[in-house]
Amino acid sequence: MTHDKTHIIGGGLAGSEAAWTLAEAGFPVILHEMRPVKNTVAHKTGDLAELVCSNSFRSDDALANAVGLLHAELRLANSLILACADKHQVPAGGALAVDREGFSSAVTRTLENHPNVRIERGEVTAIPPVEWGDVIIATGPLTSHEFAADLQTLTGSEALSFFDAIAPIVYKDSINMDICWFQSRYDKIGPGGTGKDYINCPMTKEQYESFVAALLHGNKTEFREFEKLTYFDGCLPIEVMAERGPETLRHGPMKPMGLTNYHKPDQKPYAVVQLRQDNALGTLYNLVGFQTKLKYQDQLQIFRTIPGLEKAEFARLGGLHKNTYLNSPLLLNQLLKLKAAPRLRFAGQIVGCEGYVESTAIGLLAGLFTIAELRRRTPLPPPPTTALGALLNHITGGHIISEQEGNRKSFQPMNINFGLFPPIEPLNTGERRLRGKEKTQAKRRALCARALSDFKTWFEKIR
User: Do the domains 165-322 and 6-159+326-423+453-462 match in fold?
Assistant: First the structure.
């Protein structure tokens, strides 16, 4: 088939997924990526779909977890990102984590070698001209200043910005395993895992309190006046969490539940720092939940007070990068098109979704909607009972904005979660009435079963 080429701006997760979806359907694509001609403050390579924060795609449980369900739907839709993640996974308990270099390299090589994809390196500094036809904009949370300014002029609405914090990475051989031990929480075995997929560093009450105090008094990165700090709860810096109360970390990323100290099984840790494998070789481990805006010297001093990390060598210290996204419920229609200029479709984190898998999902939808229009069909959005549909519904209409709140601040980035799905009542188990956690798990399993059934029906209709 021969058609006008579809231009996609941005070679991150969403842009790469959209390009693959179109190309596999037989439609030519030009994928614009500014790196390495122009780099960002967070990226390190010129590869497509480079992961700049965690190397985890989070839970892979498709039976009772919302993000695991989204994994399953993407796999059913022949997702390139999930295929490469599966191929380059590293042990991570019940999560799907990847060797980040192997993963992004696989995405890059696949698209470079696809006969329907042409990759053009260089920055697109303004909204493309009408001559480009329909365009998918997937510039991501690190949209360049020039492009964001032009987009602001077009929409007549300011883009919100917040800061994602990057967790440090430690060399495994610098960790003291006479103090630390391998164990997944509750010994859970996930894809490619053994139940011993995390390195755990125990803390006594005194060590924990001293650590929290150090976080609170550490020197933080300072920002210019125009850089207003608006954090997304799913990616809070460790010291910002500490500011919310002395017990916040112990009930968050440092919770000791489900863990038993291998060296001292009779002594329950008061708090635990976990490290997760970051590459296929198993030589690098990242501090789980330890995104930070501490200055580098303070990071070295404070993180080396963690038991077992006294002599830790860091392959990368933590940092921050600025994110930009649209007020999508006001600006986009249900097909991800800009109401003010329908030839422009948006995908990825710039629409206000949060997370690797969510960005990939919106890239897939942008590709599928574009394919339908190229085939002279009316695009069919996924049902809101599916993970893809629930996420799309939140972005384009599920968020309530009153006239008094009709501004950008009321719309915040969102991970996929069961709160976005239409409710469902699980079937009773025999004569016994379900209660508490058992009822919650039954509901989640029922939501996932309904979603996968509805997704398969929907996907057969649009193929």
Answer: no
| Structural domain boundaries in the chain | 6-159+326-423+453-462, 165-322
Strand partners, 276: 198, 286
Query: What DSSP character marks residue 173?
Result: G
Contacts by 256-263, CB closer than 8 A, 24 or more apart: 256/202, 257/185, 258/185, 258/186, 258/187, 259/183, 259/185, 259/200, 260/183, 261/181, 261/200, 261/202, 262/181, 262/182, 262/183, 263/178, 263/179, 263/181
Token pair for residue 47? Answer: 């590869």
Q: Residue 413's pLDDT band (boundaries 50, 70, 90)? A: confident
Q: How large is the average pLDDT for residues 157-162?
A: 64
165-322: CATH number: 2.40.30.260
**Per-residue CA distances from 355 to 66, 352, 359, 422 (Å):** 13, 10, 6, 21
Q: Which two tokens stand for residue 279?
A: 């590459």
Strand partners, 319: 166
Looking at domain 6-159+326-423+453-462, its CATH superfamily turns out to be FAD/NAD(P)-binding domain (3.50.50.60)
Q: What are 322-367's pLDDT values in tens digits?
A: 778 888 988 999 999 999 899 999 999 999 888 999 999 999 999 9
The residues, ordered by sequence, that sit 6+ positions from 183 with a Cβ below 8 Å of its Cβ are 195, 196, 198, 200, 259, 260, 262
Measured between alpha carbons, how far is residue 330 from residues 67, 143, 269 in Å?
26, 20, 48
**Residue 59 in 3-state DSSP?**
strand
Paired sense of beta strands 117-121 and 29-33, if any: parallel
- Mean pLDDT across the chain: 89
